[in-house]
Amino acid sequence: MTKQRFILTIGYLTLLIAALITCDLCFGSVNLFSLDHSDPLFQTILYDIRLPKTLTSVIAGSGLALCGVLMQSLFRNPLAGPYVLGVSSGASLFVAIATMLISSVNISGFYFMGKSIVTLFSIGGAFFVTLIILMVSKKNKNNVTLLLVGLMLGQILGALQGLIEFVSSADNLKTFILWGMGSVGSTTMEDVWFMLPVYLAAVIAAFFLVRSLNAILLNEQYAQNLGVNVNRLRVTIIIITALLVGVITAFCGPIAFVGISVPIASRLFFKTSHHLHQLVFCLLLGACVVLTADVICQLVSNQLMLPINTVTTIIGSPVVIWLLFKSKLSVG
Amino acid sequence: MINVKQLEIGYNKGKHPVSVFSNMNMSLNAGDLVGLMGDNGIGKSTFIKTLMGNLTPLSGEITLNNKSITQYSAQELAQQLSVVITEKVGGFNLSVWDVVATGRTPYINIFGKLSDTDEQTVITALEQLNLLPLKDKLIDELSDGQRQKVMIAKSLAQQTPVIVLDEPTAFLDHRSRHHLFSVLKQLCTEQGKLIIVSSHDLELMKTYINRSVTMAEGNRLEVL
Questions:
Q1: How many other CB atoms are found less than 10 A from the CB of residue B109?
Q2: Is residue A218 less than 8 Å (CB to CB) from chain B?
Q3: A206, A66 contact by CB (below 8 A)
Q4: Residue ranges of the alpha helices (H) in B105-143?
Q5: Contact at 8 Å (CB) between A77 and A332?
Q6: pTM of the model
Q7: Pairing, β B194-198 against β B33-38
Q8: What is each CA distance from A70 to A129, A182, A206, B97, B99, in whole angstroms?
């Protein structure tokens, strides 16, 4: 991909994101244009409700897409992604455990402590599953085996989470179910400030891996012969993925589709395998996908907030299937 | 250039080392096209992995330019020795250019940006193997012979004085095998590279190589 085309594509995607952010801020149950700018209701809706939701969409979409690229390159498997390989399920289970603990010791009134515990548990869960998947991939390099192990792990962790839900109180059960459907609409600006440093650190760290990621696409032995410290690369990717999936899942619930599909769509659309391009495009495209899904949620119903998972999957999956059939390009 | 002294190769299985071949001694020089021969399972690939630095010698040492290969950092070794292995490369939209450009990995910055000199090196490597017209093709669209040439071009772009090829003719037809070996021979004679090739094709080896290393049962090593 030429430098001009790279910059032009970034420009187009940035414009698209700007348009989607505007739509996301404008659409909702209350028509903002009918309110005066100095009206306290206008300020509350815009700054306390819609802005955090929009920023969360950008963080969740781009963060999960970034995890998808890193995992697909590390495992050299286009079907890898945080949701498919059970990483999100690991984070979910640990969030459920943390929520139970918090409600039992009654520290929910302390914002920072409560959120920190949930987030740390979520990161721990994501880290635990990523580590298992990595160990399996070292023992058995077959793509299908890896995928099946990921799916089975997801099922086991889901069942354990079901068990926790079964014994939890009615209030906790409702929280679990709604949170499990995925939502970007329940975050506050405090939550965004909580997520932002982790997100930025992970994104910056990912860009330092570009050279190594390009080499590992050949295979591990070639990468090692090209001077890449493969073990260090693996550990860095596990940490970045666990941090991002953990933080995003803690605040938004497990979001399906984005992590696996955005990197595939990016390769098909932009026809590149260079990770500098892939990382930038996936960050922008991931944000576009979740913002679009959130806008659609608003358009479908003003009164009812649809689960983001439903929209991302129903709209996104057919697009990728269509792209795969239409394109002769190899995605993996 | 490469000196092997009292080398014992093998794997560490848990706490116990498993010896595959021992008492290896040889001296290989720039410009040599070395044929590495022996039956399946004798230890050719283990020797190659030890040369690459993927496996640590159980005892003895391999020196490259009078320095033990275990003392080279990964990046330094990548600037001295490149490999072409049997495992196929493909998928992920990898084009011929992308694969050959990875040869510049030991020389470029962490963001993977190729300088004009790096790009010229990649172009030269592609030209040497007549691959320039195919540079934008996806690697998955190439024949096995062309893929093998792409991996050799990657090694050329890596600009190492030593190239090691593990069974490079495994998927090639008669004509492609001869073409590949004539290219290797040319690289040795014209650029003074030391090339080590493992293969079961004795006839082909006899035609092109000027040095041979034969590994046989009972740790018998014949170096000619």
A1: 10
A2: yes
A3: yes
A4: 116-128
A5: yes
A6: 0.86
A7: parallel
A8: 15, 22, 8, 22, 19
Task: List, for residues B102-114, the tens digit of each pLDDT value.
Answer: 999 999 988 888 8
Determine the Cα–Cα distance for residues A254 and A248; give it in Å rounded to an integer: 8
Give residues 264 to 293 of A whose Cβ lies within 8 Å of B: 267, 271-276
Residue-wise pLDDT tens digits, A122-141: 889 888 888 888 888 777 76
Task: Identify all chain A residues contacting B52, using CB atoms and an 8 Å cutoff.
Answer: 221, 224-225
Q: How far is CA A30 from CA A25, A34, A40, A301, A302, in A?
A: 11, 8, 13, 12, 8
Contact A95, A249 (CB under 8 A): yes
Look up the ipTM and state it.
Answer: 0.88
Nearest to B93 among A226, A228, A272 (CB): A272
CA distance B205 to B220: 20
Hey, is the C-beta of A204 within 8 angstroms of any chain B C-beta?
no
Residue located via tokens 């990964």:
B74
- Residue written as token pair 């910055």: B109
What residue type is A280 in one-letter code? Answer: V
Helix (H, G, I), strand (E, B) or coil at B108: coil
Torsions phi, psi for A88 (to 5 deg):
-65, -35
| B101 contacts in chain A (CB < 8 Å) | 214
Q: Is the pLDDT of residue A206 over 80?
A: yes
Task: Map residue B20 onto helix, strand or coil.
Answer: strand
Strand order across the beta sheet in which B162-166 lies: B81-84, B162-166, B194-198, B33-38, B211-216, B220-223
CB-nearest to B111 from A73, A210, A229 is: A210
User: Is there a contact between A332 and B92 (Cβ–Cβ < 8 Å)?
Assistant: yes
Backbone angles phi, psi at A204, to 5 degrees: -60, -45
Are A143 and A133 spatial neighbours (Cβ–Cβ below 8 Å)? no
- Print burial letters for A96-123: b (CB count within 10 Å at least 16), e (below 16): bbbbbebbeeeeeeeeeebbebbbebbb
Range A304-328 burial, b when 16+ CB lie within 10 A, else e = ebbbbbbbbbeebeeebeebeeeee
